[in-house]
Amino acid sequence: MSDTRGRRLRAGIVGGGRGAFIGAVHRIAAQIDGEAELVAGALSSDPVNARSSAQAWYLARSYDSYAQMAREEAARADGIDFVIVATPNSLHFAVAKAFLESGIHVVCDKPLAYSMVEAAQLAALASDRVLLGLTHNYSGYPLVREARELVRAGRIGTLRKALVEYNQDWLMEPLERQGNRQAEWRTDPARAGISCCVGDIGTHAAHLLEFIAGQPIALICADLTSFVPDRRLDDDANILLRFEGGAKGTLVCSQIACGEENACARVAVA
Amino acid sequence: MSDTRGRRLRAGIVGGGRGAFIGAVHRIAAQIDGEAELVAGALSSDPVNARSSAQAWYLARSYDSYAQMAREEAARADGIDFVIVATPNSLHFAVAKAFLESGIHVVCDKPLAYSMVEAAQLAALASDRVLLGLTHNYSGYPLVREARELVRAGRIGTLRKALVEYNQDWLMEPLERQGNRQAEWRTDPARAGISCCVGDIGTHAAHLLEFIAGQPIALICADLTSFVPDRRLDDDANILLRFEGGAKGTLVCSQIACGEENACARVAVA
Amino acid sequence: MSDTRGRRLRAGIVGGGRGAFIGAVHRIAAQIDGEAELVAGALSSDPVNARSSAQAWYLARSYDSYAQMAREEAARADGIDFVIVATPNSLHFAVAKAFLESGIHVVCDKPLAYSMVEAAQLAALASDRVLLGLTHNYSGYPLVREARELVRAGRIGTLRKALVEYNQDWLMEPLERQGNRQAEWRTDPARAGISCCVGDIGTHAAHLLEFIAGQPIALICADLTSFVPDRRLDDDANILLRFEGGAKGTLVCSQIACGEENACARVAVA
Amino acid sequence: MSDTRGRRLRAGIVGGGRGAFIGAVHRIAAQIDGEAELVAGALSSDPVNARSSAQAWYLARSYDSYAQMAREEAARADGIDFVIVATPNSLHFAVAKAFLESGIHVVCDKPLAYSMVEAAQLAALASDRVLLGLTHNYSGYPLVREARELVRAGRIGTLRKALVEYNQDWLMEPLERQGNRQAEWRTDPARAGISCCVGDIGTHAAHLLEFIAGQPIALICADLTSFVPDRRLDDDANILLRFEGGAKGTLVCSQIACGEENACARVAVA
To answer: How many CA atoms lie within 13 A of C137 on its CB side?
Structure first.
């Protein structure tokens, strides 16, 4: 990897083409402090969309496939320093693997993979020299950092109770049968994996609790539901939690909680 | 029962003597609209406390026992129209029974009794002529009535999700071993029954949800804990709920939720 | 005045008959802690209303005039200990004067009188033996008491800035010409005095600030407006304040602030 | 000006070097949607700071003076499309003038100039071909746009009352005598102009009201204060407002409002 002193980091992205949701968020987040600039991408599995999307973002280099991108960027003197993986879940593993193997740092959207086996494989590919980061972005808020510090410093004593909620309502209706691409892949087991609601937003909630609590959730008792008829994955979950250290609590997440747009708002520990 | 036209209702109270908590709340609630006045009481099982407490409240008649009170008030031409039962839980059944059998209306604090058997017995004693009321007082708030109306009128569609919380922190420490009378009886199975936290405040939370939802909770999966060492009853609970009509949700209640004084604050339906 | 030990205080009220607003509030406030009971009243200048209103409140004694009431209650062995003055503003002075001169304590609604001259006259009639109280009730809240203590103890340093608002919207429309009795007298100079909005609610706001600040407002620059056409008194005011100790700020009060029901909510000192 | 199709806009900045406050905010704001990139700057009147600051931001071109920058950028084929003016107030006029005269669009921080005369001069230099924008940034919030629409559409009727507050506390102490560079120039009449508090934040508050109200403030009665001893400009203001259309209200702004970090929070119209 080339020397990064005196210049912005060079970033690439896989996914994020027109019609995508989270790619643009990654683009802004990567560039906001002026320390990185997005220069290359394989923005879509559809080559036409990939190219026009790259043009719309003024990217210097556009690729038709992530494999080609990993190979060619690794070979360039001015190749990207890191890649953002912003594809549907089904591709996270393969894309992350390709870039890690090419020696390019990876910033991957959650969830990392489909299974613990795949996740362990990626973890094994990562090292001090080739980093693998997972964007549980809510843990970046100063408020969350402060909460973790209070727990870590023993300011609230031994943790007994922990509650978290992440509620949305955008899947109240069967959008996946009404042409909404985001709803299509997120409710499709082939592309989203074994869960819609828990995998998409419950994972943020669980990470927040463990991050603040400073200990893993050890046991769960979960009640997952698909409230919308014919939906193939869960759109709601109510979960009892037991932490390793003895604390207990609940994790509630929903995509059918009418009136909530994106309420990752309730985290309480006592 | 005498004619109540042109006069205030005459109320009596059992319990509520010095050191009690909820008696004074009942006294205020009964009198606040000017339609009733508290005139008689058996305020404590300790006769000295009973008398001095009655004096402090300027009651016209003080009794040493609820049995005597039920008997004598029923016999008086100017006897009480209704009695408030504000004793520890263990006496609810016996006191309510005595007054109902004497033909005096009963307003009883929750929980009604120790068991479904006892509750059914009291329900059988009540009638259109001798009323039995249970003070799930939170259902009196206009906001709660409005919520129930919205559900009833179909304004929020079919109920899918319901959450409720009732959190306190006053039992974070073993107050029952530090001379706190309220903590003593509430954590004593002989006086409180089979539960402390769920019986004392979870019952309010459950009632609120069922009241608003307009349907009973059909199934629960509950994780009750006594976080304070050597406590004999639960001081915290996390409960998964399933309603008769298919809705799901959680009920969280706690007496060790640091920072919460009396937060019966979160009720959400969708 | 008779011995008050071992019994509730006996209260009387002038004003508060059917159609009145604040009388019922005084009745509840006087009785809520169980230390007083309302037994007598001259509830209306209309004798029929006075009598039926007294009956509806189960009062022992009803009078057709406050003068008769002051005279006769002062003469009874079981006469009232204190009187509540809950009439329109125009009668505050005369009623308070009559009872103070009869040796009966007075609890008067604000504003005390029409002019500083009248106010001084009443203050001169009051003494340690015959008390005169003015119900600036908002100063009773624990939050307000705590704020005053913080200022008094020097916890916020020297006061520099103070803001207060009291906003309502009930007079947005010309209710005084639509049969609303409350609006009629409050916008009538003959019955309300020289101000509607400032006299009715601005007075609460000003008292709150002075109570918390612990110092009088020394100078004002006020912009009073009657926004509703043909209204004879102000329904809105914006006022610059200067305190004796050098602090500055604003007092905003309005009866045409759409969306505000009774928002005496913003008090800030720095 | 060169064709901007198919590329990001090229931005320059005057001011914003190390130790500055608002320059970095402009940099982020200009680049956040990916439609512009900052390539040139005269970041400080101190050439050493100017150069090292430009290096820290990875700028392609750094200038020692804004005059040189305006001249040379105007002459380049790949010169900047627009310049951001983020200097202390005293330079706004001269810098904006220089770039407008060079045919480069200007985005200037508020306040535009020292006097109405200067402001008019700048306005005269601007045209459809060379744009001059003033960053009253709060008017960009969707909430504010919605409020303006409600007023414009007549949804709240004729405007009667308007309140706005902008409170900070960072100048509670004499920071200008404790080495704080931001405090130094903002309280210095030579660099800040005739006002500190009103010019710095009151201007935002006033703009918000006028923007939402859709009409200018016609008359004011202002009480400006320098609460910190020996401060040369105001650090607090309480202002009565009258709008052209008859509405009234208040504008409160403060830099000594203890507990408020940057509370441009209260805007109410009725």
So the answer is: 12
